[in-house]
Protein: Glycerol-3-phosphate dehydrogenase
Organism: Kushneria indalinina DSM 14324
Amino acid sequence: MQLRQSNIERLADGAVYDTLIIGGGINGAVCAAALAGRGVKVGLVEQGDFAGMTSMWSSNLIWGGIKYMESRDFKLVRELCVSRNHLIKHYPSTVQEIRFLTTITKSFRWHPLMLWAGTWIYWLFGNGFTRVPRLPSLSTINREEPVINTEPAIGCFEYSDAFLHDNDARFVWNFVRTAMNSGCVAANYVEATGFERQGDLWHVGLKDVMSGREWTVKTKTLVNACGPLADRTNALADKHTEHRHVLSKGIHLIVDQITPNKRVLAFFDEDGRLFFAIPMGTRTCIGTTDTRTEDPHAAITDDDVKFVLDNINARLSLGKPLDRDDIISTRCGVRPLAVQNTSGKDRDFLQLSRKHEIDSDINQGFISIFGGKLTDCINVGEEIVDLVKTMGIDIRFPDYRWYGEPVDAVRDEFFHQARLMKLDDYTDASASEPLSTRLWRRYAAHAIGILEYIREDPRQAEILIEGTEYIRAEVRQAARREMITKLEDFLRRRSKISLVSRQETIRQSAGLMEACEILFGDQAQKRFDEYFRDHPVTNGIARDPGAGPLPADGATNDPATEHQEKTAAQRQEGDFETLNW
């Protein structure tokens, strides 16, 4: 809390910023890291928590968009494959190659041999950076992945892409932390309330959502990185842009591990869209749905849950079909898709991709980012640096590389210290990996500070919240360096505890109140009560913050239900895009 309050005081001290970024999702985070690292005086504000909307609802996949092969958007596929490779190279502990095993049924529109040939083209577009594709027989699949129902299948193929070993929100947070290390002044739960251009400066009204305090910040340039809320922000600033967003809702269900093998099981659902079972440590993430919506805070419905369960059960051979009792948690969010801001009928969803678009008013120093995805994030940061430079902002360190893991010498020093103190002996028996590996992946150079906590007090290496891998020292680290403002910031975004543990298990953990005391001090009970008041368990299932309550069987509570019914009809006509999350 001290870090956040200190940054708010700095934002309110009357200084003029080179660039103020509104929105702390992946686009805003990489812009802050890129600009601050290159020597720009940057402020970053987010009305909720960092990565609090779209950026915490992805499939955790870093992939080149193989689906765009079918629509012949080869330029985009090439660009995304190169971006994927770049992230694998510079974030080897976090972004890792993973195999996708795809099963094709008799009724599918393409033969497996044709799709397998396409994976070779895809591999070549990626410069042969990953392992080569494979065409296994059904008997091989029955032996390697007996969980797959091969009865209706006519073939399978396997290829490589990448995924985030941790969670997407943590990936975003690390860019925010990198930006702050380079001098960026960032604060969560700070809302932009108004914009006015006076002379050469923007005067931006800000409000601390937690305290109600209001003030004005002056900045030479502005970046609107508000994701699904970008259009609202542009309207507030009276900016008319070439692009706008249409929104698509997607959900995932988290269940116990379906297969011990570290690979993505991919299928085509009843509408012909890709459908995944993705490893998540000792859990599996399955989904997704894609439903056109007008609501940036769209909620999960019973139909969504039924759709995912029906599809996964039809494609797996389980001892007992998955049902609602097997759901540990859910994810529900919207994907903002960039379209031309023209009058008339929306573009056909088949023509949409997640490629980002950037609109700018050079004379007034205003930039709007539309769309985007985790895979392409480094390019977004670089493009914003170039644009800000054209607006007259001095880029003092143009050659500085602002992204990637620390140099090998830092990594080697961490693991050397970890070996000397026999850190991995503290690894819990239920953990999915050695403690040293996990700490380095999550905290990089800052993990050395965690070693100091443990040397001072070995109890700091103990798991604090039962059923998770998070140790006491990590909670201390979060309290000091990670701007934890509400309990859900820690449980859902800085960690993935609320994704992989049932809500009641978390609540009953003997260590949770101690964690709250470390994070919030004398506000511990207040934050504890607030979290469980705002996130009640419905039908035994925990939902993502902001996703709304899970309805009872047969009910719906999505404000865009009418539009969903229209979308169902569009699917039958074949004009709904194969989107992925």
About this structure: Confidence is low (pLDDT under 50) at residues 343-348, 544-581. The longest helix spans residues 74-90.
